[in-house]
Every structure is written in structure tokens, then in C-alpha cells.
Specification:
2 strands; 14 helices; globular; single chain; two-stranded antiparallel sheet; mainly alpha
Length: 300
């Protein structure tokens, strides 16, 4: 039996999404410097992303707006139950425990994806997947670090909620892609997510912070780049990748995000990069390699 390392277009798109998501810290910290709360940053991100997707449809194909009324619950699940839920849970967990502990709970998502995929899509949990999953999760633990200080049961449950919400995007997205294009799926996901975010973000206070900003143009550019780089490009790439990549594999491949975030934190913010973090990065990279090794039976 021969083994060959080969990455398809779908896998590359999933990894690309993880790389762009990994840059999120740069934009979140910049917007936080203007006084925006975490939920307000989420609202800015998803609302501008929704506007971007709608603009694409208006220019290219207005038929992309057409969806069946019976599928509205599906898109509510994607927008509110997945994108908005995991983000709110994640930021809430951050306020209740260390950043590293919250990040580890978020990155239980590949486990949830694999379990849900086995139930809903009958995906096989073979040895290669399990090995890659173990490497990816352990790598995330090492990259994020771990401190049990101040961790409560409520915080753990909310943190696990962020991982489950993250996982739901792969599951519900796979179902939605059987009926609609990637562009329709992402557009309606963000339309519903933005409606939910604007309802809970203290909109009047957010508008007042925009008005009080010393320079409107740099802030506007920052907001647009935040939506484009951390939402439009990665979510579209991930959704396109789901067209050809199993949800379980996609969830593991996307764990390149904390690896990229750690490298950016070291390069941009001079955050220390420990030996354990480097080992964790190597483990995550190894999980990606394992998932892209194709095995061929010898010809007889």
C-alpha cells in the first residue's frame, strides 16, 4: 500500500478560512481600542458582512436571494444558533475564565462535528480521523496553554456551548448546501446573525461611539476590513470547502486558526512563543498532513 500527500481544492479552502480567522485578534483589539464591547464588535462584523454578501447578489445574481419559506428555520439555525451563539458564548466564557481555557473549550468543536456527522451523515470515524482529531485537540491545548484558575461549572458549560455552536455551522451548512449555493448560504446566515446581534448590542451606545470617534474614515476602513477579512472571505471559503470536504474533516482542518493566531500574536503583538506552543503548532500541522494522506492499494 502506497501513501501520497495530496490536498484538494476543498481542503485548501478550509485551511484558508482558518488562516483568515486566525487574524481576528488584530481587528478585535483595534476596534476594542475605540471603546466597542465584544458584542458590538460582533455586530459590526456580521452586519457589514451581510451587507457585503447582499451587495454581491445585487450585482451578480438577484436570484440568489430566493429561498423557500420552509428553509427559514435552517438559516435561523445557521445565523442565530451557530454564528451568533458561538461568538456570544465564546466572549462570555472569556469574561468568566482565562482566555486559554475559553479557547480550549471553543476548540472542542471538531469533536462535536465528528460526533454529529456520524449521527446525521453516517460519516465513518476511522483511525486516521481519530488520530488527526487527537493531534489537533492536543495541539490546540498546547498552543492556547491551560490554566484552571477561576474555572467554574457555569463557565465550562458556556465554553462548551461556544464549541457546539461553532460545530453547528459545519452540520447545518452541509445540509443547506444540498439546496442552495455557497453564496446564498453565507448571505442568509449573516443576515439572520446580524439581526440577532443588532438586537443585543446596545445599538444606541454603539452609534454614539462611532460619533465620538476622533477620525471617522480610519474607523470606517477598519470596520470594513474586519468584516471582509474575518467574516466574508473565511466563511465563504469554509462554506465552499464544505461542498467537497466531509464536515468532520473540515472541523479538524480549521484548527489551523489558533496556530495562526499564536504566530500573529508573537509577530505583531510581541507575545511570547513558548516551546509548548511550538510543539502544539507542529501537532496541528501534523493533523492536517494526516488528513491529506491518500492511501492507494497496490495493483495486482
Amino acid at each position: 500500500m502506497k501513501s501520497e500527500l495530496k490536498m484538494g481544492k476543498g481542503e485548501a479552502l478550509i485551511i484558508l478560512a482558518g488562516i483568515f480567522w486566525g487574524s481576528m485578534g488584530i481587528f478585535v483589539r483595534r476596534l476594542a481600542g475605540y471603546g466597542f464591547s465584544s458584542i458590538q464588535i460582533v455586530a459590526i462584523r456580521v452586519t457589514l458582512a451581510a451587507a457585503g454578501f447582499c451587495g454581491i447578489f445585487l450585482i451578480t445574481d438577484r436570484r440568489g436571494f430566493r429561498i423557500s419559506l420552509r428553509d427559514i428555520p435552517l438559516f435561523l439555525g445557521l445565523g442565530i444558533g451557530s454564528v451568533l451563539m458561538f461568538t456570544v458564548c465564546y466572549f462570555t466564557a472569556i469574561s468568566m475564565m482565562s482566555l486559554s481555557a475559553a479557547a480550549i473549550l471553543l476548540y472542542t468543536s471538531p469533536i462535536w462535528i465528528m460526533l454529529m456527522s456520524a449521527v446525521f451523515f453516517s460519516e465513518r470515524m476511522n483511525g486516521m480521523k481519530l488520530a488527526a482529531l487527537a493531534l489537533a485537540f492536543c495541539g490546540c491545548v498546547l498552543v492556547c496553554g491551560f490554566s484552571a484558575t477561576g474555572v467554574s461549572l457555569g463557565g465550562v458549560l458556556i465554553g462548551l456551548g461556544s464549541g457546539i455552536g461553532y460545530a453547528l455551522y459545519s452540520i447545518l451548512g452541509t445540509i443547506a448546501l444540498r439546496r442552495y449555493s455557497s453564496y446564498t448560504v453565507t448571505a442568509y446566515t449573516f443576515l439572520f446573525a446580524s439581526a440577532g446581534a443588532l438586537a443585543i448590542c446596545s445599538l444606541a451606545d454603539m452609534i454614539s461611539k462611532f460619533s465620538a470617534a476622533p477620525a471617522a474614515l480610519p474607523l470606517a476602513v477598519l470596520c470594513v476590513l474586519t468584516a471582509l477579512i474575518t467574516a466574508v472571505i473565511p466563511f465563504l471559503s469554509y462554506t465552499l470547502g464544505l461542498e467537497t470536504v466531509e464536515a468532520g474533516r473540515a472541523g479538524i482542518l480549521a484548527t489551523v486558526e489558533p496556530m495562526v493566531a499564536t504566530v500573529i500574536g508573537s509577530a505583531v503583538f510581541s507575545e511570547p512563543l513558548s516551546v509548548l506552543s511550538l510543539i502544539g503548532i507542529a501537532m496541528i500541522f501534523s493533523s492536517v498532513v494526516i488528513l491529506n494522506v491518500k492511501r492507494h492499494e497496490p495493483e495486482t
